[in-house]
Design brief:
The complex is a heterotrimer of chains A (362), B (382) and C (276). Chain A has 362 residues and is of the alpha/beta class. Helix content of chain A is 26%, strand content 14%. Chain A has a seven-stranded mixed sheet. A three-stranded antiparallel sheet of chain A has the order 7-6-10, with no helix packed on it. Chain A has a two-stranded antiparallel sheet with strand order 11-12. In chain A, a hairpin with a 3-residue loop joins strand 6 and strand 7. The N and C termini of chain A lie far apart (52 Å). Chain B has three domains: 30-86; 96-120 and 152-177 and 190-326, no CATH class; 333-382, no CATH class. In chain B, 36% of the residues lie in helices and 12% in strands. Chain B starts with 9 loop residues before the first helix and ends in a 31-residue tail after the last helix. Chain C is α/β, with parallel strands linked by helices. In chain C, helix 8 (204-221) links the parallel strand 6 and strand 7. The chains are: A alpha/beta (362), B alpha+beta (382), C alpha/beta (276). Chains in contact: A-B, A-C. The interface between A and B is large, with 92 and 73 residues.
C-alpha cells in the first residue's frame, strides 16, 4: 500500500523525486502568490508531503519495526495541522497510504469528532483515498487515544497519535538522560516511581498512558490509550505505528510482539472498571464506556449519568446486532483482543476484570 | 443520540471556518491588502518571517491577513508552506559586516568606527497615544529633509575590534558544522545539540518565549548580563554560486536584525576572555535578536542550574509551533483519558473508604481489598 | 581463594605526555607531571581482597584513594583515562573492559558502593525506602511485598527508623542518609562493598555509631569490604589489612595492626604520629 502507489501517483521515478516539492515557475513572489491563489491544494504533491519526506518517514517506521519500542527520531515537517493535533499520525498515514487504500480516522473513539474529520479531510483532498468508518474495512486507521474494539488483522496498520513519546518523561524531563537510560535498559527510576505509587496509594495510580515493556527490552509510552486497550498491543496480528509530530519520534510494535504492562507480581496491572454498567445505546457490557452527564443535571442533583460505548463505529453495529463478536469478521473465533475477549485480562467477564488483585497491601 | 460532545464532521468545520473568515470581512470598511500590511505593519510580517524561517514579506503579509493578526498562526502558515517547497540551491555564507545598516548602535563604546546610526526608531520617544494618527494628513515628515544622495556604506563590525585584541572566546565549532550545517527543519534535533542547531532553533524561536527566557537569565535566574557590542538592522546580501560561471553573485537582499554581545564570564582561567553571544533574525525585531544573543551565551554555559542555561529546556520551550499546538490541543476532547483518570481516583477513594459514590461504586466497594468496612463521609487525612 | 583482584590500576587526568607515570609518584613527591601538567590520580596500584575480608586504603586527600575506589566499584569514568585490571571471583575477564550493561548488572548485584557524597549515591527526592528499593528493582525484584519486606529489614539492620521509610530522603539527617546508602549498598547481598570516606560530614558521635553498625553487619553477613578513608581511626577500626597511598601510589601495605604499630614508610610514620 505504500511505495508503488505513492511513487506512481506523481509519475516520477523515486530517484528523481528525491528532493521534490512544490515547483513554482514564477519570476517573483507576487506571481507565485497569484499562481497559487486559485490553485488550492492542487498545488501540492500527492499526499501533501514530498516523496523524499514520505520515504524518510517510511524508513523511520521500518527502523521502528526492526527495533520494537525504540523511539526513532525523524524530521517531522510543519504540517497544515497544529502540532499536538495529530501531525505525527498524519505524516505516518500519508507516507503509508496509496490511492487504493481505505483510510479511517478516529479521535477519542469517534469517527465524527471535528479533529478526526479534519485529519480525514486532509487525506481525502491530498491523497485521494477512500475513507471509511468501518474498522474492518480500513487498511490504515489513524487514531487518537483508542484502539478499536473490533480485532485488527494482519493486513491492517493502526497509526497512533502520540503527544509524549517517552514513558520516562514522568521521572525525568531530560531527553538526553532518558535516551541513555533506554540505551542501557536502565529503568530503575521508573520502577521506583511505581513502588512509591503503591506506597502512597495502595496500588499503581497511573490512568491512561500506562508504560509497557516491549519485547522485553524497551520501555514504551503507548500514547494515552486507556489501560483497557493496552493488552491489545500484546501479540497482535497487526502492526502498530506510533508517531509524534511535535516531538519528532516514530516507534512501532510489530505483529506478534510481547507487550507487557509494567506492574508488580502482587500489584498487578488493572484495566478500567465499569461495574454493572452497560452501553446506553447498544447494551454492550464488554466495551470501553465513557460516562455522560445528561442535561437534567448530574446524578447528585437528580440528573442521570449514562454510559455509552466509546467506539462509535462498533456501537452502531451492535445496535443492529447486539450479539456481534469483536472478531466477527475473522475466520477464527475466540481471538484474544484485550478485555472482554477470551484470553483477555482476568477472563471474559468485565466486572471480574476490575477486581484484579491490587489494593490488598496498602 | 447527541451524546458525543464534539460530534460534528466536516460540515461543521467548514461552517466554523466561514464564521472565522466573516470576522475579517466588514461590509463598511475595505479589507486590508497585502501591500498595506507589507508596507505599514512590517513588524508583524517580520515576526512571522523570523518565526516561520521563510524570508518572503508578501507571503508573510498574506499570512498575517489570513491569521487575522495572530503572528504565531501566521508563522505557522509560512512554515507549513515552506516545508513543501523545493530547494533549489544553498546560499553562500556572508560576512555580517557586508550589511548595509540602516540602524546601528554600539552600547559598548561611546563612539565606534562608522559612527552610531540611530536610524528609524521609537526607542526614545514618549509612549503617548497619538489620538491624531487616525485621519491625520498623510504627509511624510521627512519630505523636506535635505539629505545628500550618498550610497549606504558598510560599517566595520565592533566585535572585530575586540576580537583583534584577543578578548573574545569563540565558541568551538566543528569544521563539519561550518561546512555543512544541520538543517533542523529536515533533521530532528537531538541532545546535546550542536551550535549550528542551537542558533537555528533560536532564530526561529517564538519572539515572546525567546524574550521571556532571555530576560530570565538577566533577572537573576542565570549569570548572563551581556554588554552589547552592537545591535544593527539592515540589508544583508544573499549570495549564491552562479551555476554556470561559478562566480559568487548577489541575487537579492534580506532585511535582518543582528546583535552581538560579550559577557564578562571568563571562558578560560589561564587566558581570560569574554564569553560571546550572537543573535540574528529575519526582519526588524531587535528585542528578539538581543534576547537570542543572551540565550546563545547562556546556553554555552551548559548547566542545569538555571532554565536559560539548559539547552534542552530552552530549545524545547522556544519553539512556537510546538507550544502553540500543544497548548491549544487541550481544547480537543479528552474524555477517554478522563474516564481512565476518573476510574483511578474513584478506586483510591474507595480503597480508603471515602464516599463510595452512588451508582458506580455500589457494587464494587469490595474492590478496594481490605478497606475499612464502614466508610467515613469525608476525611481530612486523605 | 581471592575474591577481588585488581592490578595496575591507573587514572590520569589531562593530556598526558606519555612519561607522566615515570615523572610522578612518591619518589617525585608529586602526582602532577612536571612535563605536561597532567595529574596521575593513581598508578601501579595492585591489591586483592579475600572473601569476608576488610581492606583499608588510607591517605591524605589527593592521594588517589577515591580514584581507586571508583575503579574497584566499576563506576563509569566521567573524565580522565583509566586503565588496569579488575577481576571478581565468579565473573569472567577484566571487568574494567566489560560493557556498560555488564558493569551495570554487577553494580546492582555483586558490588555495592557507598559514595563519599550523598548526592552521588542517593536520589534525595525519592523516599528513603525508594532509594533502597531502586537497587532491588534494578536487580529484577518484581514482587512489591518482597521489596517492602527487604527494605524494612535493611532499615532495621542499618538502624534507620522504619517509620521514616516513606519520607523523602532529603528530610533525613546526614547520619540517616549515610545509613540509607549503606542499606542500599547491601540490598542485593553483594560479594564486596566499597565505602568511600564513610564518615565524611558526620558528627563524631554519629561517625562512631555508623562505623559500629557497619562493622556488625559486615561480620554478620561476612561481606568483604574496601574502606577508603583519610581517617586512620576508621581504617584501624574496620580493616584487617591496610594500604597506605601517597601521590597516587601505594607506599606501604600490611596487616592493619602491623602498619599501625610498626610503620615502615616514613610517610606512614608521619601519618600515625600526627594522629597521636
Amino acid at each position: 500500500m505504500t511505495d508503488a502507489g505513492a511513487d506512481a501517483a506523481d509519475g516520477t521515478e523515486p530517484a528523481a523525486a528525491a528532493e521534490s516539492g512544490t515547483q513554482i515557475s514564477a519570476t517573483s513572489v507576487a506571481d507565485a502568490v497569484d499562481d497559487l491563489s486559485g490553485e488550492g491544494l492542487s498545488g501540492y504533491n500527492y499526499a501533501y508531503l514530498d516523496e523524499h519526506t514520505k520515504r524518510e518517514v517510511r524508513r523511520a517506521i521500518l527502523k521502528g519495526i526492526a527495533i520494537p519500542g525504540h523511539q526513532v527520531p525523524f524530521a517531522s515537517r510543519p504540517m497544515p495541522l497544529a502540532r499536538g493535533w495529530g501531525t505525527g499520525g498524519i505524516q505516518a498515514s500519508l507516507s503509508l497510504l496509496g490511492p487504493d487504500d481505505a483510510f479511517k480516522v478516529i479521535d477519542q473513539g469517534s469517527d465524527e469528532s471535528v479533529n478526526a474529520a479534519n485529519v480525514r479531510r486532509l487525506a481525502e483532498t491530498t491523497a485521494e483515498v477512500e475513507t471509511t468508518t468501518d474498522t474492518t474495512e480500513a487498511d490504515v486507521i489513524q487514531t487518537r487515544h483508542r484502539i478499536p474494539e473490533e480485532v485488527l488483522d494482519e493486513d491492517q496498520i493502526l497509526v497512533l497519535q502520540v503527544p509524549i513519546t517517552d514513558a520516562l518523561r514522568k521521572v525525568d524531563s531530560s531527553d538526553a538522560a532518558n535516551r541513555r537510560r533506554h540505551a542501557h535498559a536502565n529503568y530503575g527510576k521508573m520502577w521506583v516511581h511505581l513502588y512509591e505509587n503503591v506506597v502512597e496509594w495502595g496500588e499503581i495510580q497511573i490512568a491512561a498512558r500506562y508504560p509497557a515493556m516491549v519485547a522485553g527490552r524497551y520501555l514504551m509510552d503507548p500514547s494515552p490509550i486507556p489501560r483497557w486497550d493496552l493488552p491489545k498491543l500484546d501479540d497482535a496480528d497487526n502492526l502498530f505505528v506510533f508517531a509524534a509530530g511535535r516531538e519528532a519520534r516514530i516507534y512501532a510494535v510489530p505483529p506478534h510482539t510481547d507487550v507487557e504492562p509494567l506492574a508488580f507480581e502482587d500489584k498487578s496491572f488493572q484495566v478500567e472498571r465499569f461495574p454493572d454498567q452497560s452501553c446506553h445505546s447498544c447494551g454492550s457490557t464488554d466495551t470501553y464506556l465513557t460516562e455522560i452527564e445528561t442535561e437534567e443535571g448530574t446524578e447528585s442533583d437528580g440528573g442521570d449519568r449514562l454510559y455509552v460505548c466509546n467506539d462509535t463505529s462498533f456501537c452502531l453495529k451492535r445496535q443492529d446486532d447486539p450479539g456481534l463478536a469483536k472478531d466477527h469478521h475473522l475466520d477464527r473465533e475466540g481471538v484474544d483482543w484485550g478485555p472482554g475477549t477470551p484470553g483477555g485480562p482476568a477472563g471474559a467477564d468485565r466486572d471480574e476484570l476490575a477486581e484484579g488483585d491490587g489494593g490488598d497491601d496498602a | 443520540m447527541g451524546y458525543v460532545a464534539v460530534t460534528a464532521g466536516e460540515e461543521i468545520i467548514e461552517r466554523a471556518e466561514d464564521l472565522f473568515e466573516k470576522q475579517r470581512l466588514d461590509d463598511d470598511a475595505p479589507s486590508l491588502s497585502v501591500d498595506q500590511v507589507d508596507g505599514q505593519l512590517s513588524r508583524l510580517t517580520a515576526q512571522a518571517m523570523s518565526e516561520g524561517g521563510l524570508y518572503a514579506p508578501r507571503l508573510a503579509a498574506l499570512a498575517v491577513i489570513q491569521a487575522q493578526g495572530d503572528t504565531v498562526e501566521a508563522s505557522f502558515l509560512l512554515q507549513a508552506y515552506r516545508s513543501t517547497l523545493e530547494r533549489w540551491d544553498e546560499t553562500n555564507p556572508v560576512d555580517p559586516s557586508d550589511m548595509f545598516a540602516t540602524r546601528r548602535v554600539s552600547p559598548a563604546y561611546k563612539d565606534v568606527p562608522g559612527g552610531q546610526i540611530l536610524g528609524p526608531t521609537k526607542d526614545y520617544t514618549q509612549r503617548l497615544l497619538d489620538f491624531d494618527i487616525e485621519g491625520a494628513d498623510e504627509i511624510d515628515p521627512t519630505a523636506d529633509w535635505d539629505l545628500p544622495d550618498a550610497e549606504p556604506t558598510t560599517v566595520r563590525n565592533v566585535m572585530d575590534v575586540l576580537r583583534e585584541e584577543g578578548l573574545v572566546h569563540e565558541p568551538a565549532a566543528d569544521a563539519a558544522d561550518l561546512d555543512d550545517p544541520v538543517d533542523t527543519t529536515r533533521e530532528p534535533v537531538t541532545h546535546p545539540a550542536g551550535r549550528d542547531e542551537v542558533l537555528q532553533e533560536l532564530a526561529r524561536g517564538e519572539t515572546g518565549a525567546v524574550t521571556a527566557l532571555g530576560y530570565s537569565a538577566m533577572r537573576g535566574y542565570g549569570q548572563v548580563h551581556p554588554t552589547l557590542a552592537e545591535v544593527r538592522v539592515g540589508k544583508l546580501p544573499v549570495r549564491i554560486t552562479h551555476p554556470y560561471t561559478g562566480d559568487d553573485v548577489r541575487v537579492t537582499d534580506v532585511e535582518v536584525s543582528e546583535s552581538e554581545a560579550v559577557v564578562p564570564v571568563y571562558a578560560k582561567r589561564d587566558d581570560p576572555q569574554f564569553a560571546f553571544g550572537y543573535g540574528l533574525t529575519f526582519g526588524r525585531n531587535e528585542r528578539k535578536t538581543i534576547a537570542m544573543t543572551i540565550l546563545d551565551a547562556s546556553i554555552q554555559l551548559d548547566s542545569e542550574a538555571e532554565p536559560a542555561e539548559n539547552p534542552e529546556f530552552v530549545l524545547d520551550a522556544v519553539d512556537g509551533l510546538d507550544s502553540f499546538g500543544f497548548i491549544e490541543h487541550l481544547k480537543l476532547p479528552h474524555y477517554v483519558t478522563f474516564q481512565s483518570i476518573l476510574d483511578r481516583i474513584r478506586a483510591v477513594r474507595e480503597g480508603r473508604g471515602l464516599d463510595a459514590e452512588v451508582g458506580t461504586a455500589a457494587s464494587s466497594a469490595a474492590d478496594g481489598g481490605d478497606a475499612p468496612a464502614q466508610a467515613p463521609e469525608v476525611s481530612d487525612d486523605d | 581463594m581471592t575474591l577481588l583482584d585488581a592490578s595496575d590500576l591507573r587514572r590520569v587526568y589531562g593530556d598526558s605526555c606519555g612519561d607522566c607515570v615515570e615523572l610522578t609518584g612518591d619518589a617525585a613527591g608529586t602526582n602532577q607531571c612536571p612535563e605536561c601538567g597532567a595529574v596521575v590520580a593513581c598508578a601501579d596500584v595492585s591489591l586483592d581482597v579475600e572473601p569476608g575480608e576488610v581492606l583499608g586504603i588510607v591517605g591524605e586527600s589527593g592521594s588517589g584513594k577515591s580514584s581507586v575506589a571508583e575503579l574497584l566499584a566499576l563506576e563509569r569514568a566521567t573524565d580522565g583515562q583509566a586503565s588496569g585490571d579488575v577481576r571478581l571471583d565468579g565473573h569472567d575477564g577484566n571487568l574494567l573492559d566489560a560493557d556498560y550493561e555488564t558493569r551495570h548488572r554487577l553494580r546492582n548485584g555483586a558490588v555495592g558502593l557507598v559514595h563519599q557524597h550523598v548526592r552521588d549515591g542517593l536520589n534525595l527526592e525519592f523516599t528513603g525506602g525508594g532509594n533502597v528499593a531502586e537497587k532491588l528493582l534494578a536487580a529484577g525484584w518484581r514482587n512489591f511485598g518482597d521489596v517492602r519486606d527487604r527494605v524494612r529489614d535493611l532499615f532495621e539492620e542499618t538502624e534507620v527508623p522504619v517509620e521514616r521509610m516513606d519520607d523523602p530522603t532529603e528530610t533525613y539527617s546526614g547520619g540517616m542518609q549515610r545509613r540509607v546508602q549503606i542499606a542500599r549498598a547491601l540490598a542485593t547481598d553483594p560479594d564486596v562493598v566499597i565505602l568511600d570516606e564513610p564518615t565524611t560530614g558526620l558528627d563524631v558521635s554519629v561517625q562512631a555509631r555508623v562505623l559500629d553498625m557497619f562493622r556488625r553487619i559486615q561480620r554478620e553477613e561476612d561481606v568483604a569490604a574496601v574502606v577508603v578513608s583519610h581517617d586512620l581511626g576508621v581504617v584501624r577500626l574496620l580493616a584487617d589489612r591496610t594500604l597506605v597511598m601517597r601521590h597516587g601510589r601505594v607506599v606501604e601495605t600490611g596487616l592493619t595492626d602491623r602498619v599501625m604499630e610498626d610503620p615502615h614508610h616514613e610517610y606512614t610514620q608521619t601519618l600515625i604520629n600526627s594522629v597521636i
